[in-house]
Amino acid sequence: GTSIDWTQKDRFSFPNVSTDALQEESFWENLDADLQYWTRPLRPVQWYPGHIAKTEKELRNQLKLMDVVIEVRDARIPLATSHPKMDLWLGNRKKILVLNREDMISTDDRNAWATFFAKQGVQVVFANGQLGMGTMKLGRLAKALASGVNVKRRAKGLLPRPVRAGIVGYPNVGKSSLINRLLKRRMCPAAPRPGVTRELKWVRFGRDLELLDSPGILPMRISDQTAAIKLAICDDIGERSYDVADVGAILVQILSRLPTVGSDALYKRYKIDADGYCGKIFIDKLALQLFNGDSSQAAFRILSDYRKGKFGWIALERPPI
Ligand SMILES: Nc1nc2c(ncn2[C@@H]2O[C@H](COP(=O)(O)OP(=O)(O)OP(=O)(O)O)[C@@H](O)[C@H]2O)c(=O)[nH]1
Fold first, then answer.
1. Cβ atoms within 10 Å, residue 78
2. How many CA atoms lie within 13 A of 58 on its CB side?
3. Most exposed of 4, 223, 263, 266 (fewest Cβ within 10 Å)?
4. Which atom of ligand 1 lies closest to the CA of 172?
5. Closest ligand 1 atom to Cα of 171
């Protein structure tokens, strides 16, 4: 496989670069290849192709109505929660990128992503849909970006109209929470499941701006199992689509190799040795220790500890170099 040989790294000495930093860099460089290798023998995460086609059609219809598109991603996995066809679907609409769940990543991660997207000229806002952080800035940006729409209308002799913004993103990334925050209301009608026709309503959002009250859902990428595993770990897809024990085992392998967590932190929490190669053995031991041998429950405990930040706030992606 693509396992990392730390001892090899230690033999060379790089001036001014700590071994920890090197190990971490090497971890991130190898993570996607490792995930590909680890997921190959597993039951793939199941998407329903029928749903995907319908979701895509609905999304494209919704996008046609928007002048400004607010694309929401999970800050822990900004790449796995992106769709390669998004820019094509956008056409010449303006886009603002929201990295939501900013509370679930470290300041270093946040800075790294801010630099990465700034270099690409992408407008990025970090937000917390639960607490509402970032939404003021988002509102201001949407307004600023949208002002061009009426300049064009005036040039064509048309009357100005409110500019229309809409929120899109993968399931569960926090779209409804952000709509609620922007519209300062408690409830947003739950996003309907793909294929169910819904009424689209515009809600006034500040002066001259309207927000579509139901979010657009991005279709899953059917063949990308590396992205799927990350979505599963981050609880961005339903548990019925994957095997909890498999996903938990992969998380153990990731955590034990990550220098900022490592097998020491796993041992401290569960009193079980992890070796970074076989998360399944770790899960089975935890199952025997705490859950009468039920490995799904054991895996769920580890996933849930990760999601609650018990090992620190750990992103599963770093910007590519
Ligand atoms: N910690 C944290 N949790 C968040 C944040 N934003 C949303 N959540 C939580 O994430 C879960 C999903 O949020 P929703 O707003 O329902 O996500 P959605 O994208 O509308 O989901 P779908 O309706 O499935 O498409 C909820 O439990 C929210 O409370 C955030 O910034 N930080």
1. 23
2. 24
3. 223
4. 21
5. 25
Evaluate whether 236 touches 81 at the Cβ level (below 8 Å): yes
Pocket lining: 100 vs ligand 1, CB cutoff 6 Å: yes
> 104 CB under 6 A from ligand 1?
yes
Best mutation site among 73, 102, 177 for ligand 1 pocket (most ligand atoms within 8 Å of CB): 177
Contact criterion met (CB below 8 Å) for 241 and 45 = yes
Q: List the structure tokens of 185.
A: 């209301």
Mind listing the pLDDT tens digit for each residue in 62-90? 999 999 999 999 999 999 999 999 999 99
Residue nearest to atom 2 of ligand 1 (CA): 101
Distance separating alpha carbons of residues 29 and 27, to the nearest angstrom: 6
Nearest to 215 by CA among 63, 102, 48: 63
Quote ipTM for the complex.
0.97
Q: How is residue 97 annotated by DSSP?
A: E
Q: What is the dihedral of CA 10, 12, 16, 17, to 10 degrees?
A: -50
Cα distance between residue 98 and residue 138, in whole Å = 8
Range scoring the smallest mean pLDDT among 10-14, 286-290, 297-301, 310-314: 10-14
> How many angstroms does the Cα of residue 274 sit away from the middle of ligand 1?
32
The overall average pLDDT reported for the chain is: 87
**15: pLDDT confidence band, cut at 50, 70 and 90?**
low
DSSP structural state of residue 103: G
Best-predicted range by mean pLDDT among 16-25, 131-140, 178-187?
131-140
**Residue 238 pLDDT class (50, 70, 90 cuts):** confident
Q: Which residue has the higher pLDDT, 299 or 92?
A: 299
Question: Counting beta carbons within 10 angstroms of the beta carbon of residue 298, is it exposed (0 to 12), middle (13 to 18) or buried (19 or more)?
Answer: buried
pLDDT of residue 20: 78
- Phi-psi region at 107: left, alpha or beta (left = phi > 0; alpha = psi -120 to 50): alpha
